[in-house]
Amino acid sequence: MREVFRRIIIDFQERSLRPTIKRDVQIPLFNDKIITLIGVRRCGKTSILYKMIEELRENIDSKNIVYINFEDDRLMGTTVSDLDDLIEGYFELYPEKRDEKIYLFVDEVQNIPGWEVFIRRIYDTLNVQIIITGSSSKLLSSEIATSLRGRTLTYEIFPFSFKEYLRFKNITVNLDSSKSLSFIKHNFEEYLLCGGFPETIGQEGSIQKRILSDYVNLIVYKDLIERYGITNTALLKHLIKYAFVNMATSVSITKLYNDFKSNGFKLGKETLFDYFGYLEEAYAIFSIPIFRSSVREEQRNPKKIYAIDNGLRAVYDASFSPDYSKLYENLVFLALRSKTNEVYYIKERQEIDFYCVIDGEKQLINVSVDISNPDTFEREINSLAEGMEFIGVDKSVLITKEREGSMSVGDKIVYLIPLWKWLLTHD
């Protein structure tokens, strides 16, 4: 393996990296911790590594930078015992570097069983800054918790936010410019429907759908079936379709279990729980609980499910008119979830879509695409008024398609803002 590693190291060091855009995630490269980036496949983790390497090359000898991608076909079958060949192969190439700091970038590390033992050892014994990526939350979090505790800083990576999407397309954001606003609104519609996976941007519709379908197959076969030895693949595929088509929907496992059983699927309720868990571990879907004072109360209520990207709905949904209500709500969830993993919904007399705390500030948000009907508008305002009383805050947000402004409700206030603008101004 040593010769293979040496060739991969040199091949990369001689490469000119493709241009990448700056992502909004702030990763402190120069520190004494192992940096871990986790997220769904194809969301841009490797491009973030390339951007970091590009910046390092401006000030550091490229020979001090090592990049290894364990999805490289030349490394198929690599085991943790082979990883010593990576380090020794490097120092055979550059023996003078043993006394210098090395920057080691390891992509898709979850492909090597026992990787954490190797990472921990070289972190403890060598002068090395380690940056690793993976496509499974449980894989990294469980192994970090047991083997790398105290040694790591972990960052979740999502497909492009709307800000990043516009940056990728070289669209200037100037909310005071009519020209800029016209480009922003035009591209928002595309982002809403097609999502933020980098490789899909600018592709024709049928190509986008094919790319996204390939992503789903990668998640199903590489991250789930192979990893967990799943045999009921028909059930798993049906569950994925259900989750993506029904994003931003309350889900009762018991009801879903009964529905699937009546459709002829052979399954146990525990299997359904497991499969949902696997999809969350692969960052394909998320679920949020109702906000309650105890975990037991949270568990007794249905959870709401969301998808990692709006574009995935189109892989399965053949309807002619998009469900804007679900798409809007899913985008709001992703924007919140990228800032905190503690996101809830509230249900007292009426339901409120989101409650979370970001940077110490309580946020209460409803999403309603069309509030032209007075009854709809009154219902949204009343639910937020109830929620503000329940949570003990004096302001909340109603996200809309077009309407903007504010409305007093007693001594409290509801801010109305179009989704495209909220996505650009929400920090």
Describe this structure in words.
The chain is of the alpha/beta class and about 425 residues long. The protein has helices at about 1-15, 45-55, 85-95, 115-125, 135-145, 160-170, 180-195, 205-230, 235-245, 255-260, 270-280, 295-300, 315, 325-335, 375-390, 420-425, and strands at about 35-40, 65-70, 100-105, 130-135, 150-155, 250, 285-290, 305, 345, 350-360, 360-365, 395-400, 405-410, 410-420. It has three domains: about 1-155, P-loop containing nucleotide triphosphate hydrolases (Rossmann fold, 3-Layer(aba) Sandwich); about 160-330, Arc Repressor Mutant, subunit A (Orthogonal Bundle), CATH 1.10.10; about 340-425, no CATH class. Strand 9 (about 345) and strand 10 form a beta hairpin. The model has no long low-confidence stretch (mean pLDDT about 95). Pfam families: AAA_14 (PF13173), DUF4143 (PF13635). This is ATPase. Keywords: Plasmid. It comes from Sulfuricurvum kujiense (strain ATCC BAA-921 / DSM 16994 / JCM 11577 / YK-1).
